[in-house]
Amino acid sequence: MPTMTTFQFGKHKKSTNHGKPVKITVLGQSAVGKTALCVRFMTRRFIGEYDPTLETTHQFRTFVDGDPGPVDFEILDTAGQAENYLTQSQIKWADAFIIVYSVTDRCSFDEVMRLKFIINKTKDREVAVLIVGNKIDLTFDRMVSKEEGEKLAKSLNCSFLEISVRESYDDVKYAFLKVYHDMKHLTKRTSSPKLFVRSKSSAQIRGLTPEVPRPRERSMSVVHQVPLPQMDQFMSSLNE
Ligand SMILES: Nc1nc2c(ncn2[C@@H]2O[C@H](COP(=O)(O)OP(=O)(O)OP(=O)(O)O)[C@@H](O)[C@H]2O)c(=O)[nH]1
């Protein structure tokens, strides 16, 4: 049974997005930390154990530096278990996506590519997708390197971060703000043909959004504007 939670802080009655919340679907295999990520963003707390999620929508209002008022988010925490798996409506619903894998679980990393292809097939326009490699605090259990994560994200035309939901609230907040800014940037770009003329460097894009605090020791790539490779081309490039 889908559930809904609401966290609204502050005395501001109106949000910057005028009652049209930013809808983010969080995807990824079971136990990669999707619920931990959502709960950490909304409550700042890391809570160790959760029941496996069926599907939960969180409504959350927070301030984003640079925006005049608070921003309303709606975050869909999806079920990672195969039997409850992804429906097209969960993808159609969203404005932007976070795909989570665990750096300690190669299967969850392999799943990222499949999820991105489902997003591409379902959405009829380019959308902001952030790939998050979680659990970097588990240094000795790491199975997926940062370079592999970066390479995959670049090939799939996505932004990328490695984080530890357990260790850092700042990283978690940054992830949500990053996907929010990517989404705003894409919307601006698609409604302003001039911006297609030259793609911007990551430094320039960061310059456009200097408000997002950028914790140290983090890798990030911006949304790339190259066409998405076909699956077979992509697979062979990974083996190079
Ligand atoms: N060490 C470590 N453990 C984490 C981290 N993030 C989440 N976990 C743990 O990973 C386990 C799974 O976290 P969940 O948030 O329930 O994972 P999920 O992806 O929502 O799982 P489903 O609901 O089954 O789809 C829990 O035991 C968390 O405490 C992290 O950054 N570091």
What would your notes on this structure say?
With 240 residues, the protein is an alpha/beta fold. The chain has one domain (3-191): 3-Layer(aba) Sandwich (Rossmann fold). It has helices spanning 34-43, 88-92, 106-122, 146-155, 169-191, 202-208, 231-239, and strands at residues 3-8, 22-28, 55-63, 70-78, 96-102, 128-134, 159-162. The protein has a seven-stranded mixed β-sheet with strand order 1-3-4-2-5-6-7, sandwiched between helices. Helix 1 (34-43) crosses helix 5 (169-191). The longest helix has 23 residues, at 169-191. The protein binds guanosine-5'-triphosphate. Residues 28, 30-36, 48-50, 52-53, 79-81, 134-135, 137-138, 164-166 line the site of guanosine-5'-triphosphate. It is an enzyme of class 3 (hydrolase). Belongs to the small GTPase superfamily. Ras family. It catalyses: GTP + H2O = GDP + phosphate + H(+).
